[in-house]
């Protein structure tokens, strides 16, 4: 059965000590509010005029960094597909998977509601 | 005088030892070739169906990471705007500026040809 996926979000990961300044900077840099999510460590929004989201994530500590999120309408199928390409599962967080690519770069795979992804806005697999 | 800018590219920075595997992984992950640029350290393409580019950059060494690129039709104006928001210039590379945000995260500011950015696809400043 076919499934869909696409790269859809950039997430700026900021240690707690820097988070508020980083959030404020990016809101001003993109000229949009980045409201807080129900998962309170996240703020973000769809970028005006683009089919892409920018988020910040408040970390406990650690290094600032950026990661990307792949969205899919079939999480097990997409995780399996990426594993066959050489990525590894790191851990499950809420409804999504954190994975690691061949160079050790971490990214997330996020489930979207059925029907939101299609040939026009995503890649089809199988 | 008004100028425009937008976040437009994600760049996966991979140390030379990992670059080819990382490039191959992302080409398969997004289902698109990521051809090499004239600046040979870069490969990339516009993501199918989205107004956004994914690139890889072959580093000499160092850590794998991800950074984002802001595009603008007025490089000095945009760099000045971001400096007033708290970013710092790091160095000039080819035609663009590498900058650092408040948490130390590096990003790039890239000039686009005049007329390519407008109210529908970018943010207007001034």
Describe this entry's structure for a reader:
With 126 residues, the first copy, chain A, is an alpha+beta fold. Helix content of chain A is 20%, strand content 42%. The first copy, chain A, contains 2 helices and 8 strands. Chain A has helices at 16-30, 75-84, and strands at 3-15, 42-46, 53-59, 65-72, 88-93, 96-100, 106-111, 123-125. In chain A, strands 1, 2, 3, 4, 5, 6, 7 and 8 form an 8-stranded mixed beta sheet that branches. In chain A, a hairpin with a 6-residue loop joins strand 2 (42-46) and strand 3. Chain A is globular, with a radius of gyration of 15 Å. At the A-B interface, strand 1, helix 1 and strand 4 of A face strand 1, helix 1 and strand 4 of B.
| Elements of chain A, N to C (H/E) | EHEEEHEEEE
Number of separate strands of chain A: 8
Low-confidence stretches of chain A: none
Q: Report mean pLDDT of chain A, rounded to a whole number.
A: 95
